[in-house]
Each structure stands twice: as C-alpha cells, then as structure tokens.
Amino acid sequence: MDTSTSEIISLVPKKKLCGVIAVPPDKSISHRSIMCASLARGESSVYNFLQGEDCLSTVECFKNLGVDIKLNNGEVYINSQGLKQFNGVLNVNNSGTSMRILTGILASQNIISQIDGDSSIQKRPLKRVTDPLKLMGAKFEFLNADGFCPVKIYGTKLNGIKYEMPVVSAQVKSAILFAGLCAKSKSEITEISKTRDHTERMLKLFGASIKVKENKITVEPSSLRPQNLTIPNDISSAAFFIAAALITKDSLLKIENVGVNPTRSAVVDIFRRMGGDIKIENYIDGFEPSCALIVKSSKLKAVEISGEEVAKAIDELPIIAAVATQCEGTTVIKNAEELKIKESNRIDTVFNELSKCGADITKTNDGFIICGKTKIKPCTFFSYNDHRIAMTCSILSLIAEGDCALQNYKCVNVSYPGFFDTLKCIGEKI
User: Whose CA is closest to 196, among 173, 178, 216?
Assistant: First the structure.
C-alpha cells in the first residue's frame, strides 16, 4: 500500500455540476492506432490522439523500433518502413496494453527484442499472452520471474492457431490477432464472452483480412495499409463525469464526442439500469461510433452486475462501485476477478478507499456487495498509483460532507491529463 504523503491535492465538494465538457481521446483506440500504423508501410495520420503516459509509452516503443513518429498537439504522423532491430529495452512503463499487445506483435517479427516496465508491470501476468503464442511457435525468455517482465522475445515465423480463450481479455485476444497477421496460415479465436473489439475494427480499417461472427474471430495473414483516422473521446474517462452528474444534486452535464462502441458502452447501460437519466445526441456511425451524452442527476437504485456485463465494463467497475454507495438497496458486483491484476488489486483498493469514506461495502473473492445509500465522510484518499482509483475517489469527494484530499494524484496522467482541471472548471450554473 502506497501511503506516501507527497503530491497531495485538496478536493472540495460541489453543490451541482452544469455545463459542457469534452474528455480525452480514447486510450485503447490510441494505442492500437500507433500499432497498426507502425505495421503499415507508408504514411498514416491519427487525429485526436491521447497524449497520456500509457499511450506515449507505446509511441516511444515504436520509435525505438525504427518507426518515424511525430506528435503535434493531439495529431500524430507515422511513417513506417517496417520494424527494425533495437538492442535496448523497450520500456512500457505502467502500460499493460503496451506490454501484452506488443508481445504479440514482436513474436512474429524477424528481430530480437526485450520488454520491461515499472514495478507494477513486473507484477502483472504475461503467460496468458505467451502461452497461446508459444502454441504458434513463438519463443520467449523470462529474465527474472517466470511469466512476468522483463521478457526477451525471439521473433520468428509463426503458425496459425485455433484457440479458445480461457480468460476474458481483449489484450490477450489482440496479441494473438496481431501475431496472426504474419503467421503462415489463418488463426481463429473463440472468446468466452465478447470483449472490446477495437483491435478487430482497427485491423479491418487498415486492410487486414479479418472476419467476426459472434464470439469467433478469424484473421488471415495480411499486410496493413496506411490510413488517416480520427479517434473519438474515451468512454472510460467519460464514465467518471457521468457518475459525477448522476450523484450530485441538480446537475446537468453534456459530454461531447464520446465513443460508444457497443463492446465498451456497458457502463452507460449499467448506469441506466440504476435509474440514471442519460440521453444521446449527435450520434455518428464511424469506424468507431460516437455521440454526445446528456446526463442529469438521478434517483438511483441498486443492481446486480455479473457475467458478460462485467467483462464489458471491467475498467469502469471502480466508479460504478462508487455510484452504488448512492443507490437505494444492495448492489452486487461479481465475476470480476480480473480486477485483481489491474494497476492495483482493485478489489482491495476499491474496498479500502470506499470503506474509509463511510461506504457500507464488503469485498468478496470476485467483487463487492455495497449497501446504499450512505453519506460520504471527509477523508484523505490513497491512489495506490492507480489512475482509476484516484479518479473514483475524486468523484466521491464531490458529495462529501466536507473537504477531502488525495495522495499521489498525478497518476491520473496515465489516462486523463487535465482531469483535475476539468473537475475544477465545471460550473454550478447552466
């Protein structure tokens, strides 16, 4: 547990939230845009790119692999002539997406590479990626602990695979799909339940031969072609301000240009099931659909969240748990074991921080039981260096009975640079 007292920010309650905001670009799509553009020989352009720390780690890795990448205020210009040998360590810092998907990409390249990251990355499992890749013929060497970074990757020509996913993970699926682009034959992946499909959409946009039928994805060996694309804003980031408007009295908030990919929008469905007043405006059916969300404060009721809905809202579960403290009745979140291997063990950290501010919460092996409606007590929250825990605590502080504080708040820069500026500037008048 990180109990450092450095980098503390004060958090002040608000009477209501009103206005129009835009959250940052989508983190998952930003990662994948750089990956596809780097594999596509030629010039690509990406607009509305998230310049958060995780996505910049992906950019830096591909720069080190010989790709010419230039960033200019959210615009990225990529000129790739293929990946080249890099004799140093590819540092993904705190980015699990970079670590896992890059492992799949590099396994099929004719180069030797090494991936490592910070202390958090070195505790996040990689065998769930390397095991299916080994079935394709990939070669790895774990340099410290088996199944964890740092890992050395000996790129080689891979065979196609027919693989039934034993875990629910878009990152594992994506690693296999990227490896399948350069395999000798087609690969077929069957998911337990449908996970976010940004990789499938992005590969199709860049010209890959890929087919999706329900929970089965087939990818043929393919060469990618350069593209120009614009990324919508991140629904996972928007979820914090949707939550803020729902639980803060007399609020009316418009959140512009939010990505509403059906495999990512479960958080909106869950909030609506809780009784949340959320409307859609200006729907655009692009390669990734987007719209504006109009959110009003609402009287909320408890729900049960489990199964496929958990898989589709795994990143939003901390803020959903926070909203559950303001619902009438008992909310149950289960089948969420995946929370244990995020930037922190989010079952532990959500329980610790919500308990601290007065929530009636019980942690289980795979989730939470939360009894509402409870008052939020002033306290000093810990972030555990986890951006989603930090933002969850910050949103709860809006309805606290007094001022709160948050330790190590700068970790939000992983996904939402400027989060506290947005929080501060939202007005109390329409």
Answer: 173
